[in-house]
Amino acid sequence: MTSGRRIILAKIAVSTLLGTAMAAAKAQIAAQGPCIGACKGEIVGILVGIAGGSAALGIGVYYAIHRDRSLNGCAVSGAGGIELQNRGDQQTYSLLGETAGIKPGDRVRVSGKKEKKNSGAPRQFLVEKLNKDYGSCTAAPASP
C-alpha cells in the first residue's frame, strides 16, 4: 500500500474515532442533566481523555507509516556502479546518491528510500546516509 493511501486511511480512522468519542461524551453529559458547577471537572476530564487518546493514536499511526527505510547487505560492483545485495528481501539494488563511503566487498547498512520500479530497469535505492559499515562480507557475493 502506498504511503498516500496509508495517510488517507489514518485520517479516516482518526476522524471516525474522534466523532465516536465526541458523540459518546455528549450523550454522557446529556444523561447527567443540567450541571450546577460540579460536572465541569468531569467535562474537562472527558476532553483531556479524548485529547490524550487522539494523541496516542496519532503517534501510533505516525510510527506505523514511517517505518525504518534502510537496507543491509553486501556491496558489489555492478554495470551501473555500486549495487547492494539486500539480506532482508534477497533483492539486488542499484545504489544512487551518497555512495562515496561504500566500497565493493563491504557489508553495510544504508538508509534512504526505494525508487519506483520501472519495467525492465533494475531496482534502485537512493542512499541518504551510510548508517554502518560492518567490514568485509563473510562470503563472496554471487554476481547478478
Task: Note down, in words, how this protein is organized.
- This protein is an alpha+beta fold.
- The protein has two domains: 3-65; 70-136, OB fold (Dihydrolipoamide Acetyltransferase, E2P) (Beta Barrel), CATH 2.40.50.
- Helix content is 39%, strand content 30%.
- The chain has helices at 3-32, 40-65; strands spanning 70-78, 81-86, 92-97, 106-114, 124-136.
- Strands 1-2-3-5-4 form a five-stranded mixed beta barrel.
- A hairpin with a 5-residue loop joins β2 and β3 (92-97).
- α1 runs antiparallel to α2.
- The radius of gyration is 25 Å and the shape is elongated.
- The mean pLDDT is 76.
Q: Could you provide a short overview of the structure?
A:
The chain has 144 residues and is an alpha+beta fold.
Tell how many strands the DSSP assignment holds: 5
- Enumerate how many helices there are, as a single number: 2
| Helical residue percent band | 25-40%
Tally of domains: 2
How confident overall, as mean pLDDT?
A: 76
- Radius of gyration using CA atoms only: 25 Å
The end-to-end span amounts to 28 Å
Shape: elongated
- Which residues sit in consecutive blocks of at least 5 with pLDDT less than 50? none
CATH top level of the largest domain?
Answer: Mainly Beta
List the helices and strands and how they pair.
Layout: H1 3-32, H2 40-65, E1 70-78, E2 81-86, E3 92-97, E4 106-114, E5 124-136
Parallel strand pairs: 3-5
Antiparallel strand pairs: 1-2, 1-4, 2-3, 4-5
